[in-house]
Amino acid sequence: MNDEVKRKVIDQFGKNAEKYVTSETHAKGEDLPVIVEWLNPSKKAVALDIATGGGHAAKALSPFVSHLFATDLTKDMLSNTARHLKDTYKNISFVIADAEELPFLDGTFDVVTCRIAPHHFPNPNAFVREVARVLKPGGAFLMIDNVVPEDHQLAEFMNTMEQLRDTSHNRCLSVNEWRMLFSSSGLEELQSNLFKKTYTFPAWVERTTESEEQIRSVYDHILHANKDIQSYFQVKVEDDTVTSVSIDEWMVLCRKK
After folding, report:
1. Which residue ranges of the chain lie beneath pLDDT 50?
2. Residue 85 sits in which domain range?
3. Cys bridge to 162: 7, 49, 56, 169, which one at CB 3.0-4.6 A?
4. CATH number, domain with residue 146
5. What CA–CA distance (Å, rounded) separates 143 from 79?
C-alpha cells in the first residue's frame, strides 16, 4: 500500500513539476516569510527541506543558513526545481529522498522544514520519527500542511475532496493527531497558527486532475455537501458552479528535546 501511494506521488508530481514551481498557492504563500521569522536560524545552521516540491520554502530559507539540503521523492520534480534555483541559490544541494527514510545520519541538521506535503505521506509517524532522528538536540522543526477539523464528518468530506482532486493525496491529519506524533518522537511544540486558506477554482482543480470526469466529480462532491459542510469550508458558488473553497492549514514550530 505504501509503495502504491508513493508511485502515485512520483507520477503526479513528475507530470506536473513546472506547475508546482509556478503555482501561486505554493510560490506566494503568506507563510513563506514567516518561516524565517519563526525559525530565526543561525547563519551557521545546516538546514533540510523535506519534500521541497517547487522549492519555495528552500528558497525562502537558504539565504539565512550556511547550507540547505532540498529533498524530494520525485526525481523529475527535483530536477526541474534545481534548474530554477541552482544558479541563484548556490548553497542548496538537491537530494532524491523519501521523507519516511531519510538518507542522512542522526543529528545532522539544526533546522528541518516541510511545507504543504505531509498529506501525501502514507506513514506520517515514520516521517515524524525521521525528522526527530536527523535533528540535532535542540534543533527546530517547522511544518506547514493542510489539516482536517476534529469533527469526523468534516474531516471525511475534506479528505474525500482531496482524493477526488489528486490521486496522490493520502490523508490530512488533524492538529491533535499531529501533536500526538510529535510528542511520541520527542518534539516539543513551541508555537503554532491555524488559519484558513482559500483556493480559487478552476486552477486548483485543474492542476492535478486528468479528465473532465474527474473535475466534475470534485465539483459534484462539493455541491452535494450539506449546508453545514459548505459553510465550514466557505464554499462560494456562482451560476451553479464552485468558484472557491477554504480549508484549514496549520503552521507549527517544534524543538527536539
Report:
1. 17, 20-26
2. 2-152+168-196+249-256
3. 169
4. 3.40.50.150
5. 23
